[in-house]
Amino acid sequence: FTKQFRQAIGVLKRIESYGYDAYFVGGCIRDLLLHRHIEDIDIATSARPEVIQEMFNKVIPVGLSHGTVIVRYDHQSYEVTTFRVDADYSDQRHPDSVHFVKTIDQDLKRRDFTINALAMDKTGCLIDLFDGEKDIQKRIIRTVGNGYDRFAEDPLRIMRALRFSSQLGFSLEEHTLKAMQFVISELNAIAVERILQETAKFFAGPYIKTGMDFFKWLHLEKHLPVFKDNPAIINRLPAHLKPLQSFGAVIAMLHVAVPAISIDTWVKQWKCSNKIKNEAESFNEALYHYQCSGLSPWLIYKLHTTGHSDFTLLVNMLFDDHLSEQTVHNMAHHLPIHSMHDLAINGTDLRRLFPQRQPGPWIANTLKQVEKRVVTGHLSNDKNALKEWVKWYRHATG
Ligand code: ATP
Ligand code: MG
């Protein structure tokens, strides 16, 4: 066990002390066996959520109807879910209801892939009913039970299989792949928000090349929003795809690859959040500036700070360039200001400077001019210098 797991054993022990079963389960066991970084440790238990709420001081009821609560324990959070099976997938969007069950075996059986259907008790003993450990060694993704049934039950699993291939570099086992091919048209019944989540993880996977090979083999492009109306997009993608962490960067890439499809089209049809939309636009603008005049302080300033790495990858993929992320970081580091807040003058200063003027859009406009000149090094970020310049500027522009 890693330190992360040792810290969590207390949760299992506490639940067991009340006479219930509890296990570490799912992706965290897969990642433990793969020596991968573990984001969160999930726990499955025979105790009902109400009972878990009695056992711990701090429990957040995040998904009571699905049997899930978050337990705070020793300054960490754990998702604790009651053993369950999904009762009905009839609308294919979300299970209509869940049935709680008595044993971990039943709970593992409802899980999607053998590599995800693993559990471990507090002593480190593995519960592996479907040869998940062997599949991890063989580096393959295989459904628990009959693939046709499992993908038909929840076609989102098709997207999940692909994203795991891109995240882990695993192959899709032969029967699993055939079943995916057979059921793939059912994807159109799945809510686009759920597809988006898996697609974003797909494009962020370190083995995106492996994932993309399966994507193409399955002709997934015929079943995804926007792609299905323009299946040729897939041939216009950069030859050497690199994993992009932001889905906004993915959209910017797709837009640059096929400019006839606007960012707005992608954002609307994929029902993206405003955050993704803003990031897509910011990347697109930065790419445009880069194409016109290379790297500049203004470009870096406008690019959101979490976007440096994706931006570098986009430039290299789309323009066959050799930009290094360090170059971008260095330029960002040497920027005189990082946001409007860092400017040595603000709106109040401007109003004091021109007491006779009514407050209005001129304030924001003037600050924008100052901002641009400071970022590009044409003005130094010094209060007096900026005041002088503003006086001159307002005089000159009236
Ligand atoms: P990640 O590290 O990306 O979170 P994960 O394996 O934890 O990967 P989750 O989406 O968090 O993936 O799901 C947690 C677990 O729940 C999975 O490991 C799997 O056992 C089960 N699971 C999730 N979604 C499904 C599904 N659609 N069908 C069946 N089982 C699922
Ligand atoms: Mg998870």
Automatic annotation (TrEMBL):
Q: Identify which cofactors the protein needs according to its UniProt entry.
A: Mg(2+)
Domain tRNA nucleotidyltransferase/poly(A) polymerase RNA and SrmB- binding, chain residue ranges per copy = 169-216
Molecular function (GO) terms for this protein are: ATP binding; CCA tRNA nucleotidyltransferase activity; magnesium ion binding; tRNA binding
Q: Which UniProt keywords apply?
A: ATP-binding, Magnesium, Metal-binding, Nucleotide-binding, Nucleotidyltransferase, RNA repair, RNA-binding, Transferase, tRNA processing
Q: Which reaction does it catalyse?
A: a tRNA with a 3' CCA end + 2 CTP + ATP = a tRNA with a 3' CCACCA end + 3 diphosphate; a tRNA precursor + 2 CTP + ATP = a tRNA with a 3' CCA end + 3 diphosphate
Which residues make up the binding site for ATP?
Answer: G27, R30, R111, D154, R157, R160, R163
What does the subunit section of this Swiss-Prot or TrEMBL entry state?
A: Homodimer.
Protein name in UniProt? CCA-adding enzyme
Recorded source organism is: Lentibacillus kapialis
